[in-house]
Amino acid sequence: GAVVSQHPSRVICKSGTSVKIECRSLDFQATTMFWYRQFPKQSLMLMATSNEGSKATYEQGVEKDKFLINHASLTLSTLTVTSAHPEDSSFYICSPRTEVYNEQFFGPGTRLTVL
Amino acid sequence: AQSVTQPDIHITVSEGASLELRCNYSYGATPYLFWYVQSPGQGLQLLLKYFSGDTLVQGIKGFEAEFKRSQSSFNLRKPSVHWSDAAEYFCAALANQAGTALIFGKGTTLSVSS
To answer: What phi and psi values does residue B61 have, to the nearest 5 degrees?
Structure first.
């Protein structure tokens, strides 16, 4: 159980374009979805928290208009990086939390490279 | 503020030697504690977790961790390291509160020498 899929696994885009990353919890319902970002050789930093049907809460320093999060259902959340720039190149990881297991699970991550 | 500290940025261990990676947490109440491993370019793999009960926790790949409330620590150990254990190790904590997120330490890079 607790399978999380993330798509795409890797994406390269041009500066100024937008990229959408999908995260699905395949066999459980995620009451809360967290999105993390990991720069090379660094730890995972929490970007935002979202609950199904509600607006996301963003961590300090994370632009809500740049990183659009949609948590439309208990099994699907999307992160859209709008007008991407090279400094947005990073490893993005979704992490659904279920109160049933009272822990978080992790998607395999999406490697975004902005040229 | 809640935090997780991994004092060692990089550790090198000889193959076959024992390993201990340190982790300390700062939380109001004892959180749930986790150790993850990440190989280069890969996602996270859960090694073990502590919620309550026995303070010595067994995990996968021969790893174990000991929770010490008095020291606010949750150190990871392995009696004999294999070359394939070289990776990045993250300690993380989760408050027992709905909607809160895992907080990660900065990680420890483990290198294994032959």
So the answer is: 60, 25
Cα–Cα distance, A60 to A81 (Å, whole number): 17
Calpha distance B53→A26 (Å, rounded): 30
Interface probe for B, chosen from A9, A29, A44 (most Cβ of B below 10 Å), is A44
Given CB atoms, is A49 within the 8 Å cutoff of chain B?
A: yes
Per-residue model confidence (pLDDT) at position B70? 94
Distance from CA of A21 to the nearest CA of B (A): 15
pLDDT (tens digit, 9 = 90+) per residue, A15-52? 999 999 999 998 888 888 999 999 988 999 999 999 88
Q: Among B39, B102, B110, which would you mutate to test the A interface (most chain A Cβ atoms within 10 Å of its Cβ)?
A: B102
Q: If you average pLDDT over residues B80-106, what whole number do you get? A: 92
